[in-house]
Amino acid sequence: MFSPYTIVAIFAAILLSAVSARADIIDDLEGEWRAVFDSDDTTNSGELTEASLTLTRRRNGFRVSWTAVDGKDRTVEFSKVEDRAFYAPASQSGILSMFSSEEQPNPLAGQPLTWARLGDNELVLYNLEIAETGAYGLLMNTYTKAGDGFDLDAKLMLHGEPEARAKSKLQRIGSQ
Predict the structure, then answer these.
(1) pLDDT (tens digit per residue) in 31-52
(2) What is the pTM of this model?
(3) Cβ atoms of 88 and 115 closer than 8 Å
């Protein structure tokens, strides 16, 4: 039978390895990346032909520029939200402040709301926009570790329904 100290040590090791795996995703994605789509990779009528990702680690987070499935480029600096796997734009103090802070984008006023989430082998970037009519669109770019590189799965949901999707492999630009 295991002692309580052994069980706590095993649990701590498992928890630390999960946190380390999440941090490694940021380290592995740091740099410039490009994805090229062919007609078999997309469900958006061929509008998106390529996408890019540039990620730079910062003190308490990272800065990222990316292309979403709508073809628009976005740049946001993210900071970690408490001890969770979520990242909010750097000047915010928490997820709920996105809806209440006068300094931050207010999606209910038509301003885009962005956040990021780290999984064990993935980084997901979200962008939510709400129109005056209440209609909304949610963009999700998922970067999943695959061997020595990453796979990109870019989705657009309109009113909760899938509207567009593009999948491809990311290729690193230049050397790190």
Answers:
(1) 999 988 776 655 654 566 788 9
(2) 0.75
(3) yes
